[in-house]
Input
Amino acid sequence: GQQVMQIPQYQHVQEGEDFTTYCNSSTTLSNIQWYKQRPGGHPVFLIQLVKSGEVKKQKRLTFQFGEAKKNSSLHITATQTTDVGTYFCAGHGTYNTDKLIFGTGTRLQVFP
Amino acid sequence: EPEVTQTPSHQVTQMGQEVILRCVPISNHLYFYWYRQILGQKVEFLVSFYNNEISEKSEIFDDQFSVERPDGSNFTLKIRSTKLEDSAMYFCASSPGTGLNTIYFGEGSWLTVV
Output
């Protein structure tokens, strides 16, 4: 079946350092969504990318969707302790499916 | 901001017992979902529900699982005979449409089967 992997699994950074998580799907995705899950919390929607090669920014966060629509990345510039959590990418395999396939997640720890 | 609400937040049940998890989706949303997350693992799709019927389900959603929308507001997940491996966080979610729409997750119901 379709698999979505993320690397790294864990990342510890010093506050102020940058952070990137990479998302790779075994098959083409119709879209990519990114979620943040705080420890003990629920996934919170961050953004959606739909077009091949699309790049979107939200303050210190930059999201990219690959040209082949099989990979994506999330880059955080100058991390803050409030960025702590697990970042999941997720996507739909086709446009007519309800099933959102989540990536394996990257857990970010930020040390002050 | 409208929220998806779930009850209970935590339930402990004995193996073999039936469990019902309840959810109130966002009021104008048309699509409802259940996802689960085993501790420390990724979020997994269980089922989607639209127009009072299941529209899609995963291989995890076997005969011991069922969903229902008994009235205009609640959306429930029933597990008939719980197993130890059913221990997980169960997230209800809703969206205004399918496909490329944003999905809003509830805070989850943590199920522990002993």
In short: Residues 5-113 of chain B form a domain with the Immunoglobulin-like fold (CATH 2.60.40.10). Chain B touches chain A through 23 residues (CB under 8 Å). Residues 2 and 54 of chain B are 24 Å apart (CA to CA). The mean pLDDT of chain B is 94.
